[in-house]
Amino acid sequence: MAIFIDSSNVAEVEEITKWGIISGATTNPKIICQDGLSGGLEGTIKKIVDIVKGPVSVEVTEEDAAGMVEQAKEFAAWDPENIVIKVPIGQEGLKVVNTLENELGIKTNVTCMMSFNQAYLASLAGATYVSIFFGRIKDMGYDPREVIADTREMIDREELKAQIITGSIRHLMDVNEAFLAGAHIVTITPPILKKMTWNPRSETTIEEFNQIWRDMKKKGLLK
Ligand code: E4P
Predict the structure, then answer these.
(1) Domain range holding 42?
(2) CA of 101: how far to CAs of 57, 62, 183, in Å?
(3) Rounded to whole angstroms, how far apart are CA atoms 80 and 113?
(4) Per the structure, how many domains does the chain have?
């Protein structure tokens, strides 16, 4: 299991990577527009690759297969080892995954997936990662744990190379549930990663221990 950071905010990625728990990063057009692009897309992505030293997903925005492949080649050239091309699921998307993975040797992360059917097709087409959107599946009234568990069972049974990334994480419990259901990777935003470090009982316990230490010091009892 592994944790990716779901962000293109270079400062946040840099700070959280120092914790030693981040194995990769994911972005999407919405995240990139929200986080801003002071270094331009290429500059920002290159900085993130440099910080996380692992797979960084960048999503294509063209809508036909030829356009997506051209964009993918441009992004992949920034760092052929670490850039992963995020391809939206669909008929055009599957063609792109087949071309990138099986002809050009470019890794893909098939994104925006809400169902087992989609994840199965993407895995068969040769995707390196299949991104299942936990929060958005729940929004529609379905249980994302079933989609993850079924997909994992199929990947293991058919010995496909795809790894499940669970994204669209909205709450702390989503992380636990995604991993327990069989996700290989959960990609998590900085605010949720920060919340994962915190527990009120930990805070009061640390304060209790430090207060005792401070009192002893004040009394001159610590040499
Ligand atoms: C990650 O790969 C996804 O793009 C991201 O987690 C989607 O999150 P959202 O559903 O909050 O937009």
Answers:
(1) 2-198
(2) 14, 18, 22
(3) 25
(4) 1
Digit-coded pLDDT (tens) for 70-104: 999 999 999 999 999 999 999 999 999 999 999 99
pLDDT digits (tens, 9 = 90+) for 19-63: 999 999 999 999 999 987 777 999 999 999 999 999 999 999 999
**Is 175 inside a domain boundary?**
yes
With H, G, I as helix, E, B as strand and everything else as coil, classify residue 172.
Answer: helix
* Residue whose CA is at the smallest distance from ligand 1 atom 8: 168
Cα-to-centroid distance, 168 and ligand 1 (Å): 4
Q: Is 119 exposed, middle or buried (0-12, 13-18, 19+ CB in 10 A)?
A: buried
The verdict on whether 86 is a catalytic residue reads: yes
At 81, which CATH number? Answer: 3.20.20.70
Q: Model's pTM, two decimal places?
A: 0.96
Please calculate the CA angle 181-168-38 and round it to the nearest 5 degrees.
Answer: 140
Measured in Å, residue 198 CA sits from the centre of ligand 1 at 23
Q: For residue 55, give the 3-state DSSP assignment.
A: coil
Classify residue 17: in a domain, yes or no.
yes
